[in-house]
């Protein structure tokens, strides 16, 4: 018997591409101990940044994505690793604890308004959740001049990053 | 874009914290807000900075002062940035306030 299920095909994203400048934004950035308004440019001023847009905390893709990135020690590279979802800072604190990310330097941006995903052209409207949209899963590696070195955006939902490709891009950027 | 010299550790919806915020705004001071957890036991960062787990706590790099408790903070801000600022009565050598009273 063949299992039949539907993944949702998404429209072409309108995201900034490799070589372009990553749009700047400022949102509360949550670490294990507190959250504080932080801009992407403040992070890139310090060095390259890996930015992961992911579905809301608690959805299974969020769990799988962070388990995978944790197990790959993505944080061991000389690069700032930040996630972004529409979840609140309180939910981010819970995710950091439950995914055992508390002892890493990984931090999570909170964007309940989903305006950052709009800026990046990667909005995913959620069927059956009126009034809520979120970013589609996407990974960007951004250098210290805020130029995008690597970009991947999901073309269906759910979809997962190409972890090998992303990790290679992270290592490249960290090695510069 | 340089970071403000003043950092305020605060709890969302905490009236004691709002008191400190009002005073910072009254004197048009730039400050960074760091929001911490409702659970005292989860506030290691505040403990490290100030020696206590209560908020608000203010860290002022202009003067080297770190201080807890809203009443002390208000008094400190009045002294350091209010009309009396710079006058002989100003005492910016205060250290972290005692832990009495506030439960926020």
Kindly describe this structure.
The complex is a heterodimer of chains A (176) and B (104). Chain A is of the alpha+beta class and 176 residues long. Chain A has one domain: Glutaredoxin. Chain A has 5 helices and 11 strands. The longest helix of chain A is centred in the last third of the chain and has 13 residues. The model of chain A has no long low-confidence stretch (mean pLDDT 95). Chain B has a single domain, classed as 3-Layer(aba) Sandwich (Glutaredoxin). About 13% of the residues of chain B have low confidence. Chains A and B meet through strand 3 of A and strand 2 of B.
What percent of residues of chain A adopt helix (DSSP H or I)?
25-40%
In CATH, the topology of chain B is named Glutaredoxin
Strand content of chain B: 15-25%
> How would a crystallographer describe the biggest sheet of chain B?
4 strands, mixed
According to DSSP, the number of beta strands of chain B is 4
Low-confidence stretches of chain A: none
- What is the overall pLDDT average of chain A? 95
Average per-residue pLDDT of chain B, rounded, comes to 85
Please tally the helical runs of chain A, counting DSSP H or I stretches of 4 or more residues.
5
Oligomer: heterodimer
Shape of chain B: globular
CATH superfamily of chain A: Glutaredoxin
